[in-house]
Amino acid sequence: MSPEEIEAAFEDVFDQAIVFHGFADFMRDYDVIVHATSDPRTGTSPENLRYRFRHCVRANITTAVPPEVWAASLDDRLTDYESGVDLDGYVWGVKWQVLYPGIKLEQDSREATEWSGRIQLPMHQAIIETNGHNVDLIFSALEVTTLPPGWSPFTVGHGGPDWKIPLP
User: Fold this and answer.
1) Of 62, 70, 75, 156, whose Cβ has the fewest other Cβ atoms within 10 Å?
2) pTM for the whole structure
3) Per the structure, how many domains does the chain have?
4) Model confidence over 130-151: pLDDT tens digits?
């Protein structure tokens, strides 16, 4: 995708719901799963979209929740909607974050330019802002795919990792 196409893909999910974000199970690409909806009057069905930030060399995640709200949100009951909805504090158990103010492609990113030179691949910087986390990524390309209901980003297998060692 060109930078213009990346920006258009970001605009497509403005003010939608992020339901998961983290590295793909093979640990190279960073995934942001968005539940996208539209006005029910349009007749358009909601869909789950995976925004895969390929060749992600850096992911910085910070809280968007102010310290005073964090201080009031330490009760474990807030991690479950049913037990936390009537408590004071941030209800972590809603299990989604609003994608607002949204995702932007950082123009003229010094760090993306440096990484481009290091690995000889055009790199970009995306800044994702939500009501729960802020995510800052350096990546090479964006792929957007539709996911089926029930899709899971990671499954814990039997017996642990296979203990292969990556070669340099």
Assistant:
1) 156
2) 0.92
3) 1
4) 999 999 999 999 999 999 988 9
